[in-house]
Write a structure and sequence with these properties.
The protein contains 20 helices and 27 strands. By secondary structure, it is of the alpha/beta class. The chain folds into four domains: 104 residues, Polyphosphate kinase N-terminal domain (Methane Monooxygenase Hydroxylase, Chain G, domain 1), CATH 1.20.58; 197 residues, Polyphosphate kinase middle domain (polyphosphate kinase like, 2-Layer Sandwich); 162 residues, Endonuclease, Chain A (2-Layer Sandwich), CATH 3.30.870; 184 residues, 2-Layer Sandwich (Endonuclease, Chain A), CATH 3.30.870.10. Strands 14, 19, 20, 21, 22, 24, 25, 26 and 27 form a nine-stranded mixed sheet that branches. A hairpin with a 2-residue loop joins strand 5 and strand 6. Helix 1 packs antiparallel against helix 2. The relative contact order is 0.09.
Length: 688
């Protein structure tokens, strides 16, 4: 079957991020942020995917054959594409963004570009604010092993030409020191302005200016940067025994000392310094990746903004919801009708308000919630703690295997346990990625009614301001009853899976449900009737589902894919995917919602989901796809989806080419159109 490598597909996504940094239409400092996102993404890619490929290369040939893996070839292709993108990244920074900053009277200077007066100022700054933060370590015979922290920038000092001619024993020395970014308070230093000209210096270059003072015994001091990324794959998904929490705690401790995945180094670094580094760290040649003079571009998230609003996207304040009350009871409003929430366009505060209301409402008896990634200062968990304190039965399904968020989740799980909440951890072979909230309340007639919130996004108020998601508030018994069954399954995953009519739930019901929906479209197409599928997901990776889409395409089903990240399916091939079109969207917000639409013989079915079409989501995670049953809300989802389908400003095709407006067609930027449409929604509803 024809599919694209998962890793090469992911790199295509990061190339789209880089395109945003290159776009003159994107505000200047937002372009710098896209460089930071690109850099951060690539760090994670090496820590997880490249590290995994390298582990696979160490398997025996027979084992690799059984797995159907060709890791050496894929690794070679991946590293070649990374090198190409890194070159493009560097050219974007040097040839586009630096000149653009200069044109706006902002000068990011290197140490070599400093005027005498600026160099003197930097030297004083070094003595007053930086020197005491430094603690270089000599790479000599007294040091047996050098440990480099994951993701930290280090500076190497190569000392030569001792001023004392008798010091032949120390004619050359190599020292290493962590760049003190956190203790300094940031990576950048603002120099004094000169008229309307503003100047910025990397902290690295401040240290370069002062390096001669650090080592006065040497006439020559060369300073270069390095950064190590370590293997971050926890490798516990396949384990089926032992205490999971202890495994997680142990894995977090090991992560800091994991195997090296990549050592970025300055190509101008003296060979002697690089050789000493390899000797003292155990880094091998295959882990060396040529970088540039500066590393950790994610630090550009903290680049000075100089108070210039034009350097950022126009502000889009979070909108009030058109049907949820700004004050008063949200539970009562949800009891009357369903409501769709669209963060970040609409305020995520409705979710935290609902939790705070449930925590204090004397008629609420129980709250159940799934927690995959929570904010470091989580108002969501604080509301749950208050509910437990007030005597509510709080059940929290906390996912300890949410990569890079395990430590935060452990912290809040401990807090909830101490408050008396029932904290549930999924077994090692299963991840809970669904986003569910269920509130049980005693009504006036003494019956108990359930109120639910189903979402594509995490219960995380920080990411809710950056990721586009859909959330459904509902008291519809058809959905809340089945949500309660999912929570029961999470309490005992060894029990028989519940039989559900409306929700499609992985790992037991999502794949069969999707296959049945695809089968229906294929049957319709073979009868000559209209048949279509629209999918908006972050990733399509599962070969089984790709094969089903190929089958549907060959049967005549029209298929539209909106894929943000990994897309292994090859669209537009005459022999298997001639009826499939694919596009992706990268803009100011990260597209995160998943929507599945099936024509279904004129009775269109629309599902909103937490699940991408990846094997892990379909088979090894608890995921929920929920139907939009209300006709008006279904039309609302379709309208927002149509903006994305017809975007001709920020959409790219499968080959990362921008999809331009046709002749006579007006420009349509989906995220901008979404914000404007939702802003006018209440006004339109009043007129109706």
């Amino acid at each position: 079957m024809k599919v694209l490598s998962r890793d090469l597909s992911w790199l295509r996504f990061n190339a789209r991020v880089l395109q945003e940094a290159q776009s003159p239409a994107v505000p200047l400092l937002e372009r710098l942020k896209f460089l930071a996102i690109f850099s951060s993404n690539l760090d994670e890619f090496f820590k997880v995917r490249v590290a995994t490929l390298r582990r696979l290369t160490k398997l025996k040939k027979k084992t690799r054959a059984k797995l159907g893996e060709r890791p050496k070839r894929v690794l070679k292709e991946v590293l070649a594409e990374v090198a190409r993108q890194q070159q493009e990244f560097g050219a974007t920074f040097r040839e586009q963004l630096l000149p653009e900053l200069n044109a706006h009277h902002i000068h990011l200077l290197s140490e070599a570009q400093l005027a005498d007066k600026q160099r003197a100022w930097a030297a004083r700054y070094f003595r007053d604010h930086v020197r005491d933060l430094l603690s270089p370590v000599a790479l000599d015979e007294t040091l047996h092993h050098l440990f480099l922290k994951d993701q930290a920038v280090y500076l190497t000092f190569f000392l030569s030409q001792p001023r004392d001619p008798k010091a032949k024993a120390e004619a050359e020395r190599v020292l290493v020191m962590e760049l003190p970014t956190k203790r300094h308070g940031g990576r950048f230093v603002r120099l004094p302005d000169e008229g309307e000209e503003r100047f910025v210096l990397f902290l690295d270059d401040v240290i370069r200016v002062g390096a001669a003072e650090l080592f006065p015994a040497y006439a020559q001091v060369e300073v270069n940067a390095i950064k190590l990324s370590r293997d971050a794959e926890l490798d516990i998904e396949e384990e089926v025994s032992g205490d999971l929490m202890e495994k997680i705690r142990s894995s977090l401790a090991k992560r800091a000392t994991g195997f090296p995945a990549r050592l970025l180094y300055d190509p101008q670094m003296p060979a002697e310094a690089l050789r000493a580094l390899k000797q003292k760290t155990g880094i091998t040649a295959e882990e060396l990746v040529e970088g540039s003079r500066y590393h950790n571009f994610r630090d550009f998230f903290g680049f000075p903004d100089f108070g210039e609003t034009s350097f950022h996207y126009p502000e889009w304040p979070a909108l009030a919801h058109p049907t949820l009350p700004r004050t008063g009871s949200l539970l009562d409003a949800i009891g009357q009708r369903d409501h769709l929430l669209h963060p970040p366009y609409q305020s995520f505060d409705y979710v935290t308000r609902l939790l705070r209301e449930a925590a204090t409402d004397p008629r609420v008896s129980a709250i159940s919630i799934t927690l995959y990634r929570v904010a470091s200062k989580s108002t969501v968990v604080k509301a749950l703690l208050k509910a437990a304190k007030n005597g509510k039965q709080v059940t929290a399904v906390v996912e300890l295997k949410a990569r890079f968020d395990e430590e935060s989740n452990l912290f809040w799980a401990d807090k909830l346990k101490r408050a008396g909440a029932h904290v549930v951890f999924t077994p090692p072979e299963l991840k809970c990625h669904s986003k569910l909230l269920l509130v049980a309340r005693r009504e006036a007639d003494e019956t108990t009614r359930r109120y639910g919130y189903f979402s594509t996004g995490n219960f995380n108020e920080s990411t809710a301001g950056l990721y586009t998601d859909h959330g459904l508030f509902t008291a519809d018994e058809r959905l809340t009853r089945e949500s309660a069954a999912v929570f029961q399954y999470l309490l005992d995953p060894t029990a028989a899976p519940p039989k559900l009519e409306h929700l499609l739930v992985a790992p037991f019901g999502l794949r069969p449900g999707l296959n049945a929906l695809i089968d229906h479209e294929i049957k319709q197409a073979k009868k000559g009737k209209d048949a279509s599928i629209i999918l908006k997901v972050n990733a399509i990776e599962d070969e089984g589902m790709i094969a089903r889409l190929y089958e549907a395409s060959k049967a005549g089903v029209r298929i539209e894919l909106i894929v943000r990240g990994i897309g292994r399916l090859l669209p537009g091939l005459p022999d298997c995917s001639g009826n499939i079109r694919q596009r992706g969207l990268v803009d100011r917000y990260l597209e995160h919602s998943r929507v599945y639409v099936f024509a279904h013989g004129g009775e269109e079915k629309v599902y909103v989901s937490s699940a991408d079409w990846m094997t892990r989501n379909l088979d090894r995670r608890v995921e929920v796809a929920f139907p939009i049953l209300d006709n008006g809300l279904r039309a609302e989802v379709r309208q927002l989806l149509d903006f994305q389908r017809h975007d001709n400003v920020k959409a790219r095709d499968f080959d990362n080419q921008f999809i331009a407006a046709a002749e006579g067609e007006k420009p349509l930027r989906a995220q901008e159109a979404t914000y404007a449409w939702l802003k006018g929604l209440k006004r339109r509803q009043r007129k109706a």
